[in-house]
Every structure is written in structure tokens, then in C-alpha cells.
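OP here, attaching both records as promised.
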Amino acid sequence: MKKIPVKILSLVLAVSVALPIAACNKSKKSRAKSRSGEKITADSPWFDGEVLSVKTTVPEKKDMKVEYTSDQLAGVDENYIAVYTTGNYKFPEGENFDWSTINYADYTICLVSVFDRKTSNTVTTIDLVSSLPSNAYAEKVTLNDGKILAHSSVYDEKTYQLKYIDVYFDAATGKEVDRKEKMAESEYTSFEREYKYGDYTFKTAVNYEETEKQSYSVYVTKGDGDAQIFSIKSKDANIYDVPLILQLGENKFLVPASTDGDRLFFEIDLTTGAVNPVDAKNYEWLNLDSIGTSIPGKESGVVYASNGTGIVKIDANNKKMEEIFNDSWCSISKSKLGYCELVDGSDDCFVVCGQKFAYGSTEELFVITLRRAATNPNAGKTILEVYAPWGYVEENIADAMAKYNETSTGYFLEVTDRYSDVDDGIDYSQIGSDDDYQNANLKNNAVMSNELAMDILNGEGPDILLDISSYGQLNNSTYLVDLNKYIGDLDPEKYFTNVIDAAEIDGKLYQLPYSFMITGVFTDAKYAGQSGVGFTTAEYETFLKNTLNGKDVINFGQAIYFTKLFTAMSDKFIVDGKVDFTGPEFAQLAEYVKNNVPERTKSWAEMYDSNETYYGAVGVTTFKGDSVPENAVAQYASIYGVGGYFSQLGQVNGNGTLLGIPSTDGRGPLLEPNLSVAISAQSKYADACGEFVKMLMTDDVQMSIAKSDTLVLNRKAFREASKATIEYYNINGTGDIIYYNVYPPEPQNNKIKFSDKNVDDLEKIILSISRMNSADASINIILVEEMPAYFSGQKNLDAVVKIAQDRAQKVLAERG
């Protein structure tokens, strides 16, 4: 039940504040206590889960094949599950076909499949193409109380206007039972959320009227009556979302609003029709940052809402939020629950629905019913708290966690949602360039690093930390355990041990990248520098000016560009907690950036308006015009798996490798953890956590991850998974990657055929990895702030280095 929240970032890292002092004086808003070390009792909450999968069937037509379909869940009620399927049959081919005679409705797929909720058997199928007027389109299909409702728009070819109809069908028989025509377009606004409180239905939508600030509208109807429309607006802020509606009294409701500033709160009165802003301080207890779907509860003032890791109860009368279900409190994989939305519930029973898309195969739709069990089968086990950004755990890792919980006799892994208020503090509305995005990420990562660091120091942190490679501040023995003690001496014939070496900091493995990506400059191997795996700054300058004609594929302004080069070589500048920016390597990077990189990158709007080729891939993408883009000379790229590598090859005519970004020694590309694991140095249960680390290195887990087309440490798993990838891309997928943005595609015989030779080449790239990209955001922020004085000529490098080095050393000293 994942939702990545978007909120304003108002907290800026104060790098001069000592962490130990901050740890003693920290203030956390509504931060729950860590559950690490708690014993599970027989009456601890546990839910039995029942999964019901359904699969739609599109009827065959004579001499017509299905070309494309897409399923979406229309609804679930007490007896039925409804699925809305759209798509089309394949159109005729051949130059002699007379397109003027075609009836497009014959090729349109627009079906509603109704399934029995108890058995998943098909009850009936409704063909909306034949049931609706020929010029109608079903905008939305819903199921409520045994009735299917098709919200449809009808185009009038005489008046060139749209009118709207609601057509109702009986879910049991598929027969039409009612039809209502609606002329008011406002009633067919594209609604984002819908809530039912008694006889009232609330729907929220963006107000598209031209106003200075974006606003929202709440449409309230009673039965089939006309809608009352309440305008949710502010003269000072844009309103981007209404995450939920909460009942306060018989006719009073709370409407929170997400804005480009602080969250605003409004109360609407259905009796008077008034909308009144209320003081946000009255709702400081209401943490909505990670709320996904929400539904009204059975009692007035109660709402159930899905968050990053489970379900919370929001009780307006008692002004509290309470977690009443955690994804870890059942035997169903957290990954499966992550696809779900909440559709019904009470304290003891929840219904969630999900839809899983499998690349290149049919999607799966399912309904999960979760009922509170009488006793917890894990009674007696000790909870190990797991942190994952946004509460999200990748599917294969979720399965590994479930296996650990089933097989461990003494411990139980539980994902925490305690950090949802700071996990993503980026205000995306303020980002208009790659530089903006990188700066916002640095600030947010520094804040999140501090939160975790302070909790770890105070013994309140999680035991296991997943996917925290962007929190480089934590890479020392104060915060994290050296994982070498758990993985031992690995056989380089079985594992990519150079990846482990690249991930080590001062000889210690604080984060294990058991699945990874590789980042660098993808181009023909003939352009590589003398090292054969990368470029020195002088070599890259020549490559930039000659081969790339001055258009760099590394699309950042000077400050961010420098931090990228610095991070790739940070082992030269920070050793055993000592900072040294005075050496020739630092000066060489600084001089290269000063002489070859623009002060700032172009904004995304400038890049679009300039009609120039996108810098990220020279020669690949144009933003204007209809010309066919040429194959790339080079691209700043990340290879995530064998399929990703094939995709890159397709853009450079099948002849390319991944090289390191500019450095002083021509080192190879960067290791980018895709999935990583770390253990808190303050955990009392480090060895129990270490057993989970070992599990992630097993052949079974590594193979399952590799089959998701991502790179893994296990070389056999890498090879085995590559076979299926070769077969898929040679048969099915090659056209998608070779003819990127090219229409019409070239003949089949011009496509690249992939083989084991390509996998051999990728293996060589993996073996050339130089270092892990795990930036210390606090240090990089200092460089972003100080280095521009040198780049602009305001100060000489010695003056800038003196200040930057002093600030950086103080930060490291404060961490202990």
C-alpha cells in the first residue's frame, strides 16, 4: 500500500550542529517509539489472509486477433468483483484495404467482467460496445450494491458537444436496469477520490477554472439529488490534493488540503453551504504525509487509511491516529500488499484490492480479505525493526522477509513507518532542472541521514536498514556494522567480489549491495582513455570537445557536476575520518569543471524550447520536429540489468561499453546499489539481523532477483537469468529498444541479435566497477555552497579549499 508523499521541505541541514548534542535535544513530531526488541504475545495483532485472483477473458471474433487489452478493477461489494477491460482487436493490414469502410466499434474492446467473490467464477460479462450508443465512451465503471454503473460521455456529431449518461446494469444478470441522461459537464469532472458517508457521496476534483492559484472542488450529492459544490482554495497557495475527507459531526466535515506551502484545513457545513478555513494547529495530531487510499469507517469520525506499511485508524472525535494493521502482521507477502488499495474495512476485517503488471505477460488482479486472528502464531518471537525508504520493500526481498519470519524460531522482521514524515521532503513543484532535483535530493538525504543517525545513537533506531546507499553519512562504525563478518570470504568465481570491494569504506562493508546498477558514460569502447575503463579529466575534455562536439552527456551545472566527480573519488579525499582537499586530485577535478562545465544546467523548459538535442543522450531525443533521431554517440546512463544493457546497445548501433566519468586516474564506472542492506551498530540483535543478510546472499534469493532483470552478486544467477533475457529480446523485445522513437520501424533483418558474447561484455563492465556511489549529502552540500566561489573567479582555490575542508572536518568530528 505504498504511496510516496510530496510535501514541502522546510528543514535545511545545519551542518555545524553537533550530532551528539542534536541527539539529546531532538524534537520529533508524532514519532512513534521503536518496536525493536518487543516480544510478540499471543494477543498481539495478527491477520489471516485470503487471496482471490481473477482473470478476464476477451471473446474471440472470426478472423480477428486481440492486439491489446488493459484491465482495471471496477469495484468490489459483498457478493461480486467487477473488472473493466478496454483495448482493441488488430486492424486489417495491406495496401488494398479500404479504410473508409471500417467500423471502428467492431475493433473496440470494452467489457465488464463480473466474478463471484466467493469462488472467483465468472458470473456475467457485459459488452459496453453493444450496450452503449455507438458514439459513447465509458469514462468510468464502478460496482456498488450489486449494480454496475457505466459513466459515459456521448459525442453529438451535429452540435459538436458532449453529453453524459449513466447506464446501470444488474451485476448478477448483466441486464440494463436504468439509464439517466446528464447534461451538466460539471457532474462529469475527472474525480480523483470518492467517499460515502451515509446518504452523502463526496467527490474531489481539480478546479480547472482560470484562477491565479490552483484550487480544488468538493462535490457533495445526496442520493440522486443535485450536487453541492464547495470550493477549496487559498489566495496564497496552490492546492494540489485533498488526501481525505473526515466527518466531524452530523453535517460537518473536515477537508485537508496539500499545498505548495503548509497544509491547510477547511471545514464544510452541508446545512449552510459554508466553507471555513480552520487553524492547522487544531490538527497537528493528524499526520497525512504518507496516506494513500482512505475509506469512511463504520462509526462517525473514523476513517481507515493505508499508509506506507499498513492501515491506520483516524479518529477525529478522540484526535488520534492508530496503526491497526501492519503489512508484516500477516503471512501474505508485503510485495503483494504493496500493489493494493483499501476498499472496505473495520477494526477486525479489511478488504484490499490490487493489480500486478508483469512485463510482457498478462496482469493479475486480486482481492485480499484480512481477518483478525484469535491468536498470533509468532508469539514469543522478538521483533527486529526494518527501515525501508517510504516503507517500500522490493518483491523478492519481501518474499525473503516472509521466509525469514516463517523459519526463524526467535525473531520476526517488521517494517517500520516511523519515518514517513521525513522520507521524502522534496517539493517537486519547485524543481525545474536536473540541478534543482539534485540539490533537493541532497538536502532531503541529509535530513533523513540525520534522523536515522540520531535515533541509532540513542538506541532508538531500526535494526536493519534497507536501500540507504544515498545516506552516505551513516557509512562508519558509529552507525553501521561491518557486514564482512556475516558474508565471510567470498569465492570470486561465484561472486562479483570486486563489487564488494567497491562498496567498502576504509576496508569495512557498511552496506551490502546484493543487487546493483552501474552508472557512467555509455559509448563505443574506442573512445575510452588509456585505462580502457574510463577517462582522465584531460581525456574526457578531448572526448567532449571532439567526439561530442561540446555537448556533454553529463547534464549538470558546475556545483552538482563537481559533487558527482568528487563522490566517485571520495576515497582520495576522506580517509579514516580525515578530510584532505589540498591534494592535486581535488585541484584537477575543480579545474576541469571550471573550464568545461556551464555554471548551471539548462532548465527543462529551456531544453524543450531550444529545439536542441537532450544532453542526457547525445543524438537520441529531440523535443521538436518530426525528424527521425540518429543513434547516440554517447549517453550518461545506468545499466540495471542485462535487458538494460541491451537497450543501451540498441542506441549505439550494437557497439558500446560503459566507461567511468572523468577522474584523475581514469577509473571505471560507478556502482549504484539497487538493493542494499545494513545493520545498525547499536542493535542488540545484530547476529540475528546477520542471518537475514546471509539469506539475501543465497542462491535462491539471488536467482529470484536476477530473474527480475537486475544485476546481482551471484555470477551463476547472473548468467542463468541472462539466457532468458537474450531469448526474450531476440524474439519479442528488440524492436522496442532498437527503434527508440523511430517510426516506421526498419525491417526485421536490421535488428541486432543478442548472444552470450554480449553478456561476456557486460561481465567485463561489471568487473571494471571502481567505487560505490554512496554520497555523504552533508559534505556535498558544503561543496555545492563553497565551490562556486572558485568556479566564478571570486576566490582562488586555496581560499575555497580552506573553508570547505574546515567545514567538512567539523561535520565528521561531530559524528564521533
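Record two, same layout:
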Amino acid sequence: MKEGNTRVLVVPHTHWDRAWYWPAERFRLKLIDCVRAVIRELKADPDYRFTFDGQILPLEDYLAVYPEDAVFFQEAARAGRIAIGPMYCLSDVYCTGGEALIRNLLLGKKWCTRFGGGYQPALHMPDTFGITPSMPMIAAGFGMKAFIFMRGLAGQVPGLTEMITVQGIKPQLPDGTRHFVWKTPDGSEIRTIILRDGYANAAYRGAVDPATDILNIDKYATALQEAAKKQDDGAGQPLLLMAGVDHQIPHEGQGAAMQLATAAGTYNFTYSSLEEAADVLQSADAGKWPVFQGEFHGSGAASVLGGTLSTRIYLKQDNAEIEQLLVNQVEPGAVALRLLGSTRALESVIEHAWKTLLVTHPHDDICGCSVDAVHRANEYSMQQAWESTDAIRRHAVIGLFKHYGGSLPHDLRPSFALMNFQGIERRGPSRVQFDYEGQRSWGDIKLSEAYIIVDEQGDPVPFREVSRGQSTEHPRLTAELEIYAPLAPATFTRFYIEPRDAWPESTSAKLEVAENEFLRVTLHKNGTFDLEEKSSGLKHEGLGLFSGEADIGDSYDFSDIPGQPEEVFDKLTFKLERKEWPGDLVQLKASGELLVPASTDSVTRKRSEQRVSLPVEVILVLAPGARQVEVFIRFTNQAADHRLRWNLLLGQKVETSVAGLKFNIIERPAGGVPEGDKPPRIWPEHPCDDFVAAGNLCLFSQFPGNYEIVGEETSRLAFTLLRSVGYLTNPIQMATRPGTNAGPYTFVPEAQCIGRSFDMHFAVRPFASAEKDQLLGEAMLWRANPLGGQTDASVPYPIRHEQDQPKPLYSINEPFLVSAFKPATEGKGSVLRIFNPTSAAETAILTIPQAQAWEAVHLDETPDASYRVCRDKKEQLTFEMPPFGCRTFKKK
């Protein structure tokens, strides 16, 4: 070391994409070579340190085949020579849910604790395709000292594209920023490092002889000096050099090159870690740093590779379904059983289900931008996660029936139950599958041609039968039911099926109209519908147009053919049907086909003259008392190289949109369609999770997706249903990204989704400006399908007595939602998390038995004394909820 030299922190690492242009098992051999090289360097140089990319998974994958090295790495972790965690895997945060990210961090922390090593207290997400605005709250909830990222800053990717001046993109941060303070509306903040020069600014590239694979020490020493000079811009410490890149294997000679670079210049190059960088950041004076609040989503293809959200969209749908099953049904069901006295421990199987799902969450898996074999493996993992999770659901339902009792004596009606684990009342839609297998003995229930469903008071409830057919689990029939009944907070509610001779006859002569107290829906033969608000008379016309255009992009980004407009299918002729279900539920259906070009040649930029048929079915459901119309879209893709969208005409020029994301909302400018054919051509597509709203219409969605506000005089909200593409990356032919490879030029035919059928569920909710702050909460509540199931003829249940009325496990005042009700990650405790889905600070009153036993904890489930909890009443906790903030409680 030279006295007086400026210290430079060199962090040896590898950014490990578990699966990408190879499947995970093919990458495993390279991973073994990488980790063996780490062992070599750790043994050869006592100063050497290595960072496992902010995630556990690479080391876990290595130890799965070389468990004998576990002790070595445990000792290295305890000595601070390797950094592991904090995440279980580097997930893509726009494609996955907020509670999934919290489980990811909880499992990462638990793994590190059990491994006996250090838990890296710097949240490092170097290459994730965008960062959501709630990240400071989540990072602070896990005691992170710093957040570190690269991708997402509008208009650029370090070392790849510099697009700040293109099409009027404004910098989100002052040019050259390395450190800033990132805040969230709940008051959380995190000191943040933007890897301005990338996460590979000190990689070996250019210093390794390709013929011998030997590191040139002189060249690498010079590269280190140049990288340090670029960092040394007067912004202060830390000067951070990331000595690694995607799948980089450590080379011998790195330490010698660092010594040479130190001896020859004005910098001291020392092995370091991201934790040390975070410590330096903590001690710095942040008074002059930029302060930022919001997301790092970038703009179109510029930096985030945003088309991935709608590539292989079936992955996003499957993942969202399993996440919702875990968060809203299985975890709460397991905790409910525990609080009701069950001794059956379900924590380990729930954790296993989460881990099986989480291996699909890395940004090259869930994003759909890997080779076909990777995504076939993803589908298999998701199926296994669903099977495991659904088995736990069935067990939970059986346990609840055992506690609350089966049917009353001599009541032979088929029955099922729903349990809404929200702390406030929830109305449908609630889905449950009813298997006609047995009430008292196997096969004693028969599926009637028609029936009604009644609640425990005998009152009919609105419902519809979504499907019926042969069960795949036993030789009986099954029916999927959709219930629109009010469900009390955290209460076990029974329903009964009573046969009828026929379904209700239509009471309306207008076959294309449905209406309730608030809305009137009129379906047209071109598949669109009008939505009239009865109180104001405001009419939204032409909703639900399909549109499509060529997509000569790749799995990362959409690309149009410049000058070729999007085709709007407004001249269709669909078959219309109307059906009235019990409980005044009305269903309108339009079925037909879209004729689209069969394919597109990205070289000639011409679409095929041959057209193929995409069968399409649109179902609208209007329930009594509902302020939104449910929309179910089913289609089968038969065309290649195209993008399919569904549109809401807004009837006015709209300048902004609002989207629901995890634990937050974001307002975005509408943007404009790119002009000309010279790249880069940035499309103003944006991600949303729970909902997107523009004008006076809100679209709820069951899964995350891309949307765009389109139109110069009047606007439409276009939601992407499908991207059908055939290349992993296609930077030469596409018209958006400026010749920048995002991966190898590999053919991925299964990303075309040819022959795949899709079922999608949305809801359209008209709203007044005063209701804007309610939308996130309404959308989250709409998504939170309750735990549901039926009695099992093979299980002896206690007889339920007439006077037995289930009491709620808890309740909370509106507008607050239960974000999680789960087993504690460590020990036998229970965790309840409350979320404020509005922009206003409010007082929450949680009514729960043994209120004194629930203590406030952070997101990582450690004690939290940062706010006051009033316990004046025996079964009440009163506390302040910040805007878009969480409060978490734990009962031991």
C-alpha cells in the first residue's frame, strides 16, 4: 500500500444467471469451474474475497453436487471472505409480487443463518430489468445498509447504450450520479449506489489472452487504473470496482495485477465487499446527494428490456396464480389452523413450495428471455409448486372443517366453505373447484343439470358455473364455481348446493344488455362493449377492441415495422349470447375469430399475405352491487411474429396513467409513438401489476403486464395480451434497440406460443377523480381469492351444532388490507402484515384475540420499536399507518 493513495474497493464477483442461453443443468458445470476457482484463490491469497452476486442460489447449486465443500465455505463466510445473500435468488421484480420478494429475502436470510455465515447487508440487484418504487421500504425492512443496482436508469445502460438525448428523455438523476438517497412515501429511505459504469467495470475482458486463457497482469493493472480514474470524479468514496461479469470464472494473477496497479499509480487497490462499500456509504455526508422517489423502469427498449413482461406471458400468469394461492390461501390457512389449536406443522412444506417457485423468479427465467429448454423447466417447476401448494390448501380446508364441524345432522346437501383472510369484507369473484366425490360416502353426490347456491341463512347467492367435466383426480365429475357473495373478515363461511330443475329463464328481451344498480353494459357484435354509469349518465363506448401488429423484435423488446400502423379489429362479427345465472348474475358472451398475418419476415420487414384464425371468446359478467364488470378473454394463438393487444377507448386525450405496483402506485406520462425508422426508437410501454388507470377507467388484472397510452387526439389504453417472437435476441433486424445484443442470436420457436390457449381475467372499473386513491386497495382485494374447499367423505368430521357460529380471527378498519398472514420464518410463531394502499396516513385499529401477545416486527421479523402501538383494549391494537406503508406483527 502507498501511504496517501486513495483507496479503491475491488469486489471480485460473478453475475450468475442460473439459466439463460443454456439450461441450469448445462450451466452447472461452468458454475463448478467458477466455484473451484474461488476455492483456489481463497486458499492461495489470504486477502482474497469473493461475492456470490447478492444471492444464495449459485452456492446452493454447487453444494448440491459437492456437499463436502460446505465446511470450507462456512468458515470462509464466518471470516468475511465470501459474501452470501441477502436474496435466495436474483428475481425480476416487475414480473413477481411484493410478498414473493419478501419471502425471497426471508429465505435468503434463513439460509445464511443456518449455513453459519454472514448475511450480506447490502441489497445488490445488478441486472434486474427495472426496480419498483417500493424497494427502499423493503430494503429498510430487512436492515439493509445500502441498495446497489445498474439497470433501469432512463435512457442508458452503462457501456452499452447512451440514450439520454434521444426523443426528449429526461435524466432521472443528475448526469454522472454514483450515490443518492432513495425514499418511499412511508418515510423509508436507503442510501443507494447506481453502478454508473456497470457491474463489470473491472472485469477481465480485454486482459485475458484468448489463446491461452491467461490473465495479462500488465494489461489488467492498466485497466484497473483507468477504471479507478473514471470513478474518481469528486463525488467521494466509495470508489467501487466490480471485478466480474456474467458467468466470469476468477483468473490467477488478479492480486498481482492489483499490487502492480497500486505501485504504479495514485490508488491503493484492495480486495473488498459490497458490505464494506455500504459501510463507507453510511459514514459519508449525504447532505448534497440527490434525493429520489419513484421507480427505475427506464423507457421502452432503452435500458430495461421491458418487452420481457409480455414475452411468454403464460409464465407470468402461472406464477401470479401460485403466488396468490400461497399468500392468500395456503399461508393464512396454515396459521389459522395453528391459532385454532392444531399441532400439525406446515412451515417446512410451505417453505419448500416457495423455494420450488422461487427458482423460476430470476430475471432470465420469469422474464421469458432464455432458450426454450429453460422455460419448459420453469413450467415444470411451477407445476410442482402448484401441486405442493394445492395439497396444503386441501389439508387446510380439511383442518378447518374439523375445527368448525361438518354439516348439521341430517343435512345431506353438498357443501363447501370459503374463508376470506382479509380484515375487511370482500365481495366476489371467488373461485372454488367442487368435486362431486362424496359428502357422507364416496360418490354419493350427483351433479345436477341446474342448481342454486345458498348461504348458511338459506339465502341464494350470485354465482355462475365456469366449467364442468371429468375430474383428472378421480372418476367423478367436477365443476368450477365463481361466487359473488359477501365474505366477512377472516371468517369460515359455508355454502350449500341445492338442485333445481332448470337454470333461470331470461327476464330481458335485450340479449346484449346486462345491468345492476350502478352499471349498464351493452355488448356489440364486433366484440366491444359500452359501459354506462347510472348515477352520472357517463357512457364509455367501444371498450374491448382487439388490435395487432407485426413484432420483429426479440424476447427482450417489442419492435414494430416502421411506418406500418397497428391494425385495429373494429369490423368483426362475433356471435353473441346472454345467460342469467342464479342471484341476478348476468353473463354476456361474444365468440368469433381474429384473422391476422401468419408470420413476418424480419429481414424484408414484410408480413405474410396468408392470414390465420385466432379463435377468441370474450365473457362479460356483471354481479349485483358490483362497480366493475368482470372480463374473461380466451384465445388460441396461431400466428408468429406479432403482438396482440386489448384496448379501452378513453374518449378524451389523456396525458398520464397510474399503475399499481408492489406496495405502491406510480404516475407516468403517456409518451408518444416513435417517429421515423432510425434506431433507437423508444416505445412508451410501461409495466403494471394490480391495475392501470387512465382517464376515468381502471383495468384490474390478475397478472402483471405491459400497457401503453395510444392516440394523438383521443387516447386508448392498450394492454398487451401476447408477444409472439422467435429469437432470443435480434438486434440486427429489429427497429428499436440500436444493434445491442442482449444475448446470443438464438432461435426460440416456443416463444412464438403457436397453438397455446390463454385464459385471462380482468375487470373494468369506471371511477371518479375522488375515487382514484381507492384503486390500489380495490384491485388488491379483487385479486385476493379466499381459501376454499369442501368436505372430504374419507375424513370423519365432528357434527356441527346449530348454535356454532364461527367468529372472525381478526378484523381491521378500512381501507387497510392484510398483505400477509403466514407462519413465522423461524420458530413456531405467526406473522400478520397490514398494508395501507392509499396516499394518506391513517390510524389502523386491528381487532384480534390475545392482542397483547402480538409484537411489532420489521419485514425480516425482528423486533421493531420505531412506532407506537396502543394496547388500551384487550383485543385491539391501534397504530399509525404511513402512506403506502406496512406494519408487521408477530405472535410467538
